[in-house]
Amino acid sequence: MTDKPALLLLDPVEPAFDAALTARFDLTRAEGDLEAALAACGGKVRAVVSRGGIPVDAALMDRLPKLEIVAGFGVGYDVIDAVTAAARGIVVTHTPDVVDDEVADLAVALLLAAIRRIPQADAFVRAGHWAKGPMPLSATLRGRRVGLVGMGRIGQAIATRLAGFGVEICYHARHARPGLSPRYFGTLIDLATYCDTLIVVVPGGAETRNLIDAAVLEELGPEGVLVNVARGSVVDEAALVDALERNVILAAGLDVFAAEPEVPAALLARDDVVLLPHIGTSTHHTRAAMGALVLANLESFFERGRTLTPVPESRGLPSA
Ligand code: 8YV
Q1: Distance from the CA of 75 to the center of ligand 1, in angstroms?
Q2: What is the pLDDT of residues 270-290, one digit of tens each?
Q3: Is CATH 3.40.1280.10 the classification given to domain 100-275?
Q4: Which of 63, 151, 160, 213 lies at a CB distance of 3.0 to 4.6 Å from 173, suitable for a disulfide?
Q5: Are 263 and 239 spatial neighbours (Cβ–Cβ below 8 Å)?
Q6: What is the CATH code of the structural domain delimited by 6-98+284-314?
Q7: 313 is catalytic
Q8: Annotated active-site residue in 46, 231, 237, 287
Q9: 166/154 Cα distance (integer angstroms)
């Protein structure tokens, strides 16, 4: 017997974080066999740690009658049904703040990589083409109007970085944020009409599904560049492929996809896209910080009955 709280770890995590959880909890890893894990521990689990691979929905919660807390390893929690959780008195936490700079860095890197064709240039050198002549010229960041789709913490961190690049920065969000200097657009289509570059940083989920559609891409125009570091579900991938194919826009830089780790074959075949394997937070530094915050939330919950970074849907619960 153990008096450590029973915890179900839904997805594999970095070894140091796994070890930290193992030391403090009666841990069961789903490890690709959720059914077996539920059979082993479903009746006693008080905490779930999720990093997005398995939906934490009503059906899963039904099978965890003692569940008290779902700790998300990530700032986005679109796979966790936080509304249902709150209705059942289950608190949900996530890892805001600690990911902002890392994801913002990657967004800017992806923007430059897509416009200046940096991966293509690297391939050009490695293939020995340079000796036969210079690489064809690329598009530029100069003179661009960059629209941020979403202006939360990560959006603001991107805007801060872009300020040094001399581009015009604009944004669309549900509400204008007082005190911010970038120009606000009340609708996405107006932002896309004014801008030639979009960076997507809105949360995933039903509200933002296929927000970037054919009409938005059409407005972006032939010099248009789309960068997505948010969730693949926000972009209509078929419409994006079609827009690239017909030169409706120029290029795209994508860190996220609708059905990860699957990437549409039509994108893999293209030379005008930069494709990354969802690495926005994938550094030793930030993953350690995320793990520490997940752990701090769990410890604070079990020791003091309070969480540190609950999601907005959980506000109102005594532990939030
Ligand atoms: C993933 C992320 O959660 O923070 C987010 O929302 O998308 C990432 O940090 C991370 O890859 C863990 O799987």
Answers
A1: 7
A2: 999 999 999 999 999 999 999
A3: no
A4: 151
A5: no
A6: 3.40.50.720
A7: no
A8: 231
A9: 19
